[in-house]
Write a structure and sequence with these properties.
Length: about 140
């Protein structure tokens, strides 16, 4: 999907470049200055989720659980409360609900939030964590 987008972006740019060259040949340098350069849009929370979490987490409670519990309705949900999912033992002592601060700390380093947690993921970039949390908030 991303490659498809990139390819069409390239095509647009390429077409623009051809036009620019033709116009430059006609002595229209002002048009050149207005040519937009291709930009790489930052990934949305949904895209990040698909790539970085989707292998292990579904977003629909009715789906078959993967390696991790479903994240449907995770925002505001008590940690470790998906029925039938076998969390690591540390979750038994986790007495909080998932809010921004807990999710941010969790995505930075799960084991710092719940000792012994078995989620093998860390995201050091605050902007990417924020995008992911924004997406998690929307999951009903
Ligand atoms: C390789 C698999 C894997 C990946 C990738 C992964 N997780 Fe997890 N996640 C888990 C597992 C396993 C658990 C349960 C941890 C435990 O029991 O110690 C978990 C637990 C969680 C929990 C706690 C849920 C609850 O019910 O309390 C949240 C929130 C979470 N993951 C979010 C994410 C997000 C967001 C991403 C992507 C940025 C992600 N995870 C990527 C495997 C993964």
């Amino acid at each position: 999907m991303r490659d498809g987008k990139r390819r069409s972006g390239w095509r647009e740019w390429h077409a623009g470049a051809v036009v620019a060259v033709v116009m430059a040949g006609l002595g229209a340098p002002a048009a050149l200055a207005q040519m937009a350069l291709p930009t790489q849009a930052p990934l949305t929370g949904a895209e990040l989720f698909k790539r970085q979490c989707g292998t292990c987490h579904t977003t629909n409670a009715a789906d078959q659980p993967r390696q991790g519990p479903t994240l449907a309705g995770v925002f505001g949900r008590k940690a470790g409360s998906v029925e039938g999912f076998r969390y690591s033992p540390g979750f038994a002592k986790a007495d909080f609900s998932w809010d921004e601060a807990h999710l941010d700390a969790w995505l930075t380093n799960p084991q710092a939030v719940i000792p012994g947690a078995i989620m093998p993921y860390r995201q050091p970039k605050p902007d990417l964590r924020a995008a992911l949390i924004g997406y998690l908030k929307e999951l009903k």
